[in-house]
Inverse folding.
């Protein structure tokens, strides 16, 4: 299949021979499809000085910013890196080539660049772009956008009329340093979305250095730089946030945070936080329910991989892969160690089961970044989609069995055991971000990924015959989008969140593959504590569920 | 290092040559020896030089002069009087020995060899032979020297160097004489692997196997390359081939078992690891891999294997890993106290190891 893709001449021949073409593509789940109207290029501007920021961008968000029912795409750009780079830094973010971009999806599936129209062209000249989080922090029904940077982060308030306003100063969420992934969640169940920001390293251009051979330097590993703290902002509900990193206990732990994911792993009704750390122990912040968090990863068995090693955690997703109703953790990392899968054992503890679940045979020589646990084939089991590509752009000269550019991994879930699936014809890229959602509203989850020096890749799900159900939550007492709700459909559980993956934000709608089932039973535990059950729900539909007023 | 070895000569007292020096030379010689005994080397040198001028054909005088220069760490000045002494008294072991040292110290290994052969001093002779690119001969002499002085770090260093050089020379010969042989491909595979040129290494091993698929070790080495790359399916294939070739090899069985663990084939892995353990009992790595393989299906057997690791290994990274896995097993069984204890041990080891 892949060799066919690399030989366009052969593909061309196959295209006019439909029978053979079907044979070639019959098993592939996705079709790499052009995003008409999206001309974005993630410009990371690599220099010979190997400034570490260059190899880490950039994020992608799938959101319906104008509530027209179609997912739009927001892409974070990086910036121009001068050689040498000196403080005060400038990344030429005023140059349109380095803008973040918002693309509105049109009814015909094409996209229109609405960046200027939306007022999102100002990314801050001293900011080198990283990631994006999406959440309706003021519960006005329109998703807001938070962009992380090396520099200052920016919160864009969605005005509801197709425009956004930079409200960072008022909101007090600029952070500073090197922010990476971020996510909105409601940690105190007060109905207002709070904000968690991971930060990577204590790094500046002045403290930058190179590693490897003098004549062919490479990026240094994170251990060469200082670790740093993550940030938790509490939403006061008046458009401002309070930095509660210290009082909540989040800042008590320093690490090399990259990925962020949320779920209530112990069923106590409060959303917990998992931070994927690069080359240090992973963090599991247990939400104590009183505004404080305890970092419990090591004692819960979720800090180290199966062989007791510290994973090079990049992306992370916190969902239930084995349909036991408990959220598990899947972490992507560097080659030669399998992607880490922490199975939730149900007694506030985890077991590293990456080998038992088949990831030992799937990771191999690839480096993983963005990751999703979604039911791509709608068989009722969440599959994994992982964007891959090495950190070092010259890794081949150090180890010629490794490659900078790689193809994504589709790992199909066969009752809790993962096997390599057929992504379909694709091409190798330096993959980084990944967001998941149903772009064409056909009931099958698609993926949009980012890659350094390249445009985004759109993996259109080719679909199939299985049934599905997609749920939009409408919180009343809970936050408006129901982030943090536990939704169970025919025994499968999803935790409502747009966060997870790497630097990216996915479709907030909750998608369930239902196999042959033609009816669904839905149970929801809202963040407010309200429980709701719906029976005999017809499948193959987009369903909006409103939170009841009472328990 | 050569200098360090040559300090040995300080313990050699020049044997008194049959004293045939002239009367005046004898007086000067004694004066020099007295100065030497007073640790006044500079004065001793002056006296020995005068003695040599007075009687330039006395081997004893010339040996004393050369020895004094050597004690002053001046091998270059020591060589001429010692050469002359050797001409005059070719059978004198002390003269030949000291001349050999001086020449070797100055880098004239080839020239030093015949003198050291006469002196029958295997350590310095081995060093000279190694420097002269005769590693096989060097190896024999250094091993002989090491038998008399087994804890000499310099000798140990040179033995190691000689072994490497001998291996390299054999390799060169192998590659030159039999470039298409399986062993040549295997050797090139090893070299490529050391240089992290993995595809090239794999290709060489594959060629070696194509020529001699029944050669013990080939599949094992190729499997280890795949294993290091986390390409477990390919690794399994190679380790399986090795276990077929060498059913009595505990290592091959362990490698196959470990690859199966990595692939999540826990039952099959446990069987293979048990087989490895029966072939070579109580290898900590085998026991740890058994613990991993059995953790889910048979926690008590896993516990037994991991406790076996902890009986053998203390304060090592493997012991820490065993503690961690035991903690996971206990947690899963709801034995939180035992889990906490294992975690305490894990932390203690990590602290000791500075991690």
């Amino acid at each position: 299949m892949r060799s066919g893709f690399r030989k366009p001449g052969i593909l061309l021949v196959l295209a006019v021979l439909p029978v053979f073409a079907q044979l070639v593509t019959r098993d592939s789940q996705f079709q790499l499809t052009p995003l008409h109207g999206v001309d974005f290029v993630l410009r990371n501007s690599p220099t010979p000085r190997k400034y570490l920021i260059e190899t880490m961008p950039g994020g992608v968000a799938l959101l319906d910013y104008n509530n027209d029912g179609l997912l739009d795409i927001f892409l974070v750009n990086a910036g121009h890196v001068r050689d040498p780079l000196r403080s005060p830094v400038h990344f030429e973010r005023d140059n349109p080539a380095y803008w973040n971009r918002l693309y509105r999806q049109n009814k015909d599936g094409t996209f229109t660049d609405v960046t200027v129209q939306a007022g999102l062209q100002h990314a801050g000249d001293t900011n080198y772009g990283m990631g994006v989080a999406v959440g309706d922090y003021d519960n006005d029904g329109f998703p807001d956008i938070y962009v992380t940077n090396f520099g200052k982060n920016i919160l864009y308030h969605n005005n509801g009329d197709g425009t956004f306003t930079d409200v960072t100063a008022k909101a007090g969420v600029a952070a500073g340093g090197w922010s990476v992934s971020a996510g909105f969640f409601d940690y105190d169940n007060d109905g207002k979305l709070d904000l968690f920001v991971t930060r990577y390293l204590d790094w500046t251009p002045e403290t930058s250095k190179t590693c490897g051979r003098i004549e062919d330097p490479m990026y240094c590993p994170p251990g060469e730089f200082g670790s740093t703290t993550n940030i938790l902002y509490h939403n006061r509900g008046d458009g401002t946030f309070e930095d509660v990193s210290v009082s909540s206990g989040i800042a008590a732990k320093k690490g090399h945070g990259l990925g962020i994911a949320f779920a209530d792993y112990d069923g106590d009704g409060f959303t917990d936080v998992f931070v994927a750390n690069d080359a240090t122990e992973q963090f599991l912040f247990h939400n104590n329910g009183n505004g404080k968090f305890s970092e419990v990863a090591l004692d819960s068995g979720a800090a180290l991989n199966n062989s007791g090693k510290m994973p090079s955690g990049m992306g992370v997703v916190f969902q239930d892969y084995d349909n036991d109703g408990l959220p598990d953790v899947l972490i992507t990392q560097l080659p030669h160690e399998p992607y880490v899968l922490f199975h939730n054992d149900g007694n506030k503890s985890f077991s590293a089961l990456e080998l038992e679940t088949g990831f030992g045979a799937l990771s191999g020589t690839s480096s993983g970044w963005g990751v999703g646990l979604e039911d791509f084939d709608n068989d009722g089991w969440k599959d994994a989609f992982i964007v891959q590509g090495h950190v070092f752009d010259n890794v081949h000269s150090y180890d010629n069995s490794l490659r900078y550019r790689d193809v994504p991994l589709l790992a199909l879930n066969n009752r809790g055991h993962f096997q390599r699936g057929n992504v379909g014809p694709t091409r190798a890229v330096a993959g980084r971000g990944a967001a998941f959602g149903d772009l064409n509203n056909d009931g099958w989850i698609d993926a949009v990924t980012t890659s350094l020096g390249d445009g985004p890749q759109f993996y259109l799900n080719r679909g199939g015959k299985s049934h599905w159900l997609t749920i939009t939550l409408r919180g009343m007492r809970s936050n408006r989008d129901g982030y943090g709700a536990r939704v169970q459909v025919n025994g499968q559980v999803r935790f409502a969140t747009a966060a997870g993956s790497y630097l990216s934000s996915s479709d907030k709608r909750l998608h369930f593959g239902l196999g042959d089932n033609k009816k669904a039973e839905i149970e929801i535990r809202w963040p407010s504590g309200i429980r709701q059950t719906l029976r005999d729900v017809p499948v193959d539909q987009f369903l909006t569920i409103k939170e009841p007023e009472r328990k | 290092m050569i200098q360090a070895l040559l300090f040995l000569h300080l313990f050699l007292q020049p044997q008194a040559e049959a004293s045939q020096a002239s009367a005046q030379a004898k007086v000067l010689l004694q004066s020099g020896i007295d100065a030497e005994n007073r640790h006044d080397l500079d004065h001793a040198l002056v006296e020995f030089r005068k003695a040599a001028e007075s009687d330039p054909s006395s081997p004893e005088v010339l040996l004393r002069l050369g020895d004094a220069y050597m004690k002053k760490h001046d091998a270059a000045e020591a060589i001429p009087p010692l050469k002359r002494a050797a001409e005059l008294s070719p059978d004198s072991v002390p003269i030949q020995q000291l001349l050999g040292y001086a020449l070797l110290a100055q880098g004239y290994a080839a020239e030093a060899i015949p003198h050291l052969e006469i002196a029958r001093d295997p350590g310095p002779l081995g060093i000279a032979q190694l420097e002269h690119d005769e590693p096989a001969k060097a190896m024999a002499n250094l091993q002989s020297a090491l038998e008399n002085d087994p804890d000499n770090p310099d000798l140990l260093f040179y033995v190691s160097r000689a072994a490497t050089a001998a291996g390299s020379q054999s390799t060169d010969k192998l590659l030159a004489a039999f470039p298409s042989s399986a062993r040549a491909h295997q050797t090139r595979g090893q070299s490529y692997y050391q240089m992290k040129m993995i595809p090239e290494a794999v290709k060489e091993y594959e060629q070696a196997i194509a020529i001699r698929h029944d050669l013990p070790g080939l599949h094992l080495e190729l499997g280890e390359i795949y294993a290091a790359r986390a390409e477990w399916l390919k690794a399994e294939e190679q380790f399986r081939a090795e276990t077929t070739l060498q059913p009595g090899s505990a290592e091959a069985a362990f490698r196959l078992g470990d690859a199966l663990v990595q692939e999540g084939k826990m039952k099959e892995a446990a069987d293979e690891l048990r087989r490895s353990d029966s072939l070579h009992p109580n290898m900590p790595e085998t026991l740890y891999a058994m613990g991993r393989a059995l953790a889910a299906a048979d926690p008590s057997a896993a516990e037994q294997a991991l406790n076996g690791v902890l009986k053998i290994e203390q304060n090592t990274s493997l012991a820490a890993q065993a503690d961690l896995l035991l903690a996971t097993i206990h947690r899963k069984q709801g034995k939180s106290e035992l889990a906490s204890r294992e975690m305490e041990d894990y932390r203690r080891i990590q602290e000791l190891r500075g991690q």
Remarks:
- Confidence is low (pLDDT under 50) at residues 1-26 of chain A.
- The interface with chain B takes residues 298-301, 304, 306-308, 335-338, 345, 347, 349, 351-353, 355-358, 360-361, 363-365, 398-401, 417 of chain A (CB under 8 Å).
- Chain A has eight helices and 39 strands.
- The helical segments of chain A are 2-6, 8-15, 18-25, 115-118, 168-171, 297-300, 360-363, 395-398.
